[in-house]
Specification:
The chain has 261 residues and is an alpha/beta fold. The chain folds into 2 domains: 91 residues, Translation factors (Elongation Factor Tu (Ef-tu), domain 3, Beta Barrel); 153 residues, 3-Layer(aba) Sandwich (Rossmann fold). The chain contains 6 helices and 16 strands. The chain is globular, with a radius of gyration of 18 Å.
Length: 261
């Protein structure tokens, strides 16, 4: 367990916030796709920690988390001032693999899933493409940050308020055409229906090693309680086994995710 002192906690837009902790020990080993398990200060009556994907880290010990206010825990977190001390566990979980030097990274972020992959922009030998999808433009995050990193940004919204009108998967056909002949490495994080669709589409298109982050509700964060399991393909009569997203994931190969009923 490490401590994390809040050095900033600001609203990005709407119900979305970014909190920055000073925690050099965690920053020293954090990798893209990993998470921290946070015991939010001033919530002594709630014993469970909250998992948050690591958005980015700095060499000076600053760890950034992007979150949305969706319940009591994140509501309290959004009001914590600078200087507040929180207990952190991390970095936890299996990370994304950094793209090879000859691979173009393609990141697919649904809603605030965009934050879970941002560290990949610093681990990539060459700039890539990020596809961002959301219900509306108010739910699209980190557009300018991705652009400043050198990544091309393509957008889709359900209501057509930004980018194309439709699902993020509808951005794939033109991407395949524009990058024909290139070696692509796909990464994704977002709502489960989006991820399951990608786990079907990408292997069929010849990208079996595409990686997806199966964010899930977690209790312990270290693989002890089996509360965060997902179905992964297995050679048994059922065709699947249960994998703990906190310790065996949250990152899995798309081809390994069980898509049956």
């Amino acid at each position: 367990m490490q401590s994390g002192v809040i050095i900033s906690n600001t609203r990005l837009q709407g119900d979305y916030f970014k909190v920055t902790f000073y925690t050099p020990e965690i920053c020293a080993t954090a990798q893209p796709g990993q998470f921290v398990h946070v015991k939010i200060a001033n919530m002594e009556e709630h014993i469970l920690r909250r998992p948050f994907s690591i958005c980015n880290v700095s060499g000076s010990g600053e760890l950034e988390v992007v979150y949305k206010v969706v319940g009591a825990g994140t509501e309290v977190l959004s009001k914590l001032p600078e200087g507040t001390l929180c207990d952190l566990l991390g970095p936890l979980g299996k990370p994304f693999q950094a793209p090879a030097a000859d691979e173009v990274p393609v990141l697919l972020g649904g809603g605030y899933g965009a934050a879970a992959m941002f560290m990949l922009t610093e681990k990539s030998a060459q700039p890539g493409v990020v596809l961002l999808g959301a219900r509306s433009k108010n739910d699209l995050l980190l557009i300018d940050d991705y652009k400043q990193s050198g990544f091309e940004v393509r957008l889709a919204t359900n209501d057509g308020s930004s980018g194309i009108k439709g699902l993020i998967t509808e951005l794939l056909p033109p991407l395949f055409a524009d990058y024909a002949g290139k070696k692509l490495h796909f990464y994704a994080c977002g709502p489960m229906p989006m991820l399951l669709a990608l786990c079907r589409i990408l292997p069929e298109k010849g990208y079996p090693e595409a990686e997806v982050s199966l964010d899930h509700l977690m209790c312990c964060g270290v693989g002890a309680c089996f509360a965060c399991v997902v179905k992964i393909k297995a050679d048994n009569p059922d065709g699947f086994r249960y994998a703990r997203t906190c310790s065996e994931g949250p990152v899995f190969a798309a081809k390994d995710v069980y898509l049956g009923e």
